[in-house]
Automatic annotation (TrEMBL):
Cited function: 3'-5' exonuclease.
Name of protein: 3'-5' exonuclease DinG
Keyword Nucleotide-binding: yes
PANTHER family named in the record: DNA REPAIR DEAD HELICASE RAD3/XP-D SUBFAMILY MEMBER (PTHR11472), REGULATOR OF TELOMERE ELONGATION HELICASE 1 (PTHR11472:SF34)
One BP annotation, GO: DNA replication
Organism: Listeria innocua serovar 6a (strain ATCC BAA-680 / CLIP 11262)
Gene: dinG
Amino acid sequence: MKKKRYIVVDLETTGNQASREDRIIQFAACFVESGKRLETYSTFLNPEKPIPAFIQELTGISPKDVKNAPLFEDVAPIIASLLEDTIFVAHNVSFDWTFLEREMTRAGISLGKMKKLDTVELARIMYPGIDSYKLQDLSDEFGLGHDKPHRADSDAEVTADLLLLLLDKLENLPLPIIRQMATISGSLKSYLPELLFEIEMKKERENKPLDPAFTEHRGLVIRKKEVKKPTYSRADLLEFPETDEAKMALFKKAGAPLYARSGQFEMMNLVFQAMKSGKHALIEAGTGIGKSLGYFLPAIYQAKQAELPVVISTYTNLLQAQLFEKDVPLLTKLTGFEVKASLLKGRDHYLNLFKFEQLLQEVDPQYDVVVTKLKLLVWLTETTTGDIDEVNLSSGGELFWNRMKHTGWFLSEKHDPWLAHDFYKFNIEQARNADLVIVNHALLLSDHFSGRQTLPKYAFLVIDEAHHFADSARTQGSFILSYRKLKYYLNQLGSLEKYSLLTRLAMAFPEADSLYDLDIAAMKLGEAVEEFFTLLKMQLNYARKNLQEVVLVENSEKDAWNDAIYYAAEKVLRLLQESEKNMETLLAQGKREENELGEAESAFLEEMYAFLLDWKNIVKQLEQMLHKKSPILTIYLQADKNHSISSIRLKAVLMEVEPTLGKEFFAKKESVIMTSATLTVNGKFDYLRKSLGLEKEQLVEKRIPSPFDYKENARVMIPDDMPPIKDTPIERYTAELAKYIRHIAVKTNGRMLVLFTASEMLQKTYYHMKNEKSLEEYVVLAQGVSAGSAARLTKQFQMFDKAILLGTTSFWEGIDIPGEDLSCLVIVRLPFAPMDDPYTKAQIALRKERGENAFQTYSLPEAVLRFKQGFGRLIRRESDRGIVFVFDNRVDTTRFGKTFLESIPSAPILKGNQADLLEEVSEFFKEG
């Protein structure tokens, strides 16, 4: 039998349009055979046209490199011979194949049909959790040594190494998974279905037993999991180390990377005493305290002694994962006893295996659906949690996920053949048997207020990132009703004339009268939605041109809707309710007949129940918008600049959470510890305490300052020769700002994070900087301009020696760039919320109405807390040194500006002109 030979190809071109006049400037091909990368063929090609400057910058290929290179037609016969009897592989195969085929045709050579394999597609399937499938990112992830990205020879070799890695993982998957993948992949246009069939035949012949780490059930393979029970038997270890000596002994015994930190012991004692005395506490723990262990250590002793779990809540899923993966192992090392910790999320984060099994049997040739099925099959061999956040889903994959997410059980649980392996039940059971249950604020709040009781019984709670807790509560009571969302659910429901949920209901209940009522209601609802959103579009058009937000109801307690919009919305609501009633009738019939249902019908009813829950949620939200005066909402429209109907969103934001949190949440807990690096404004907890609905008498309040030496290691610089930010046209201001940043960058070798409050100013500054010749050797990255998430941009920033990163909202907090990677922070403008923001306007109006000074009680403290978060990006470790430039001169020229400076750690503040401040920058880094 002839050996299989892969040819891994990469091209560099003058542009990305094969159909136009773009040409190849470098061709490289690398061979893979018998599990090894073999020789590489590579050549520059003369494109007989100029190479655009951005391509030269991207690839490093200059006109000089291609000047004496052969023309494509000269090497076309060689390329044709290389391709013979091979499988064509590339990273994004359609691009390379399309380009190459067109050039070969132009050279008079027909390539004919070839088997093709795409390493992007294969990587998406085989590594479901990786957050980027770009070649450079995969190379970094797997340590493939990619020293010349965007050069065809280097790219081809790295793609060949990646192919070997992917094939090896694929060939080691269990036979039942390969069998499923071979069946599902049939509609893919690549060589993958054939490859999977070959692997299946080979494994059938080998007939190896299943690895004991897995279990096979109903043709699927999942990783085995077991609930770990907590231990309370080591009484000698359960005494909390109250003295500094006792704590030091623990740290000494644990060794690196653990070390005692100034302020951390004080925090540990405060937390433990508050829990023991049943008090709530607000603790501001400065950067470097080691806040996580500061509450984790007392929490584990409390859990062990009370034999009840302590709940730890943080703001995001990412922070949740960090606590679980990084801090829990450190806690185990420090205490010397086993810590049972569980990470728990909302129910719809978990895969319903019964629904997934049934969906695998559906033939759906949509590309995103096929790839999502394949990657989830691979993921099931790896996950023990079933948490979909572990998987990088495409937008089409996310829509498909709605059909298999967990929503509990509509029919009796006994009808679920996957009950013994259910992920949601497993995670709930883990939480019930844990010492520490790690959740996010959203789940904590919904669990408490919905009455669903997902969390185990608890009395003690730690809220980390507590400055976000009131916002999280506000988000829980806020919602968005968009044109796209309503159209999505209407399309899913469909009609009796086209395959949809409605036609499937007709197959399940062919005689039911409610079917026809539902069909008519859905048709009328579609028309009513169009009428309603057409009116909303007109409302936007009446407002200023290009205005993207318009307030409909500023305060639901006292303001009325526009009559025409209200009646159109009422019509939508009535038809939503009618549809809901008919769906409930049909599902109730299914419930009565559940013992006669087959598995496919049962799974369909569970899917229909999940759909109905989402539908009910829309009904509830629209009812609240239209009919309820309290809690107070502000309701406004959002759209793109063109006011296209598909972009229109109706947004309702909850205005007050203080009374609810104070009386219905905190009052029902024995002890809640709230902590963050930013809880105070000008040294006082007043603003945060009030925003949480708490009284001073109920609380222990403590500020523990950062142990870092800011006087020695930081400088705050305020330029006095920049034009005033408020009165200067944005074009002129950003041009001046870009020049100033350029001068700072030269002194600091880049390593600079520039924080903006508005995307428009960021983008204009970025384009001015890109035109600066003196910044050619610097990598300038900008949020919203450069591709990638905040995490991806941060990673890129750290990869380059001379980098400048421009960021907005998400860069003010939550990113961690320790060491010399970040030496300079620039705050362009004090982070006040924009005055035209509907929510901000409504908050100010509400406070004024109540006789408050809205600036002092809302706008200023919010901005100061955000400023503190931004400032905290600079010094992350004891050895870090850096400077902060604040370009908004209001920090120095206004009375309120002092509040910002007095709320950050005490560092020398220097004011002056550009020349003087740049000299100070040079001196500062010289000293370091």
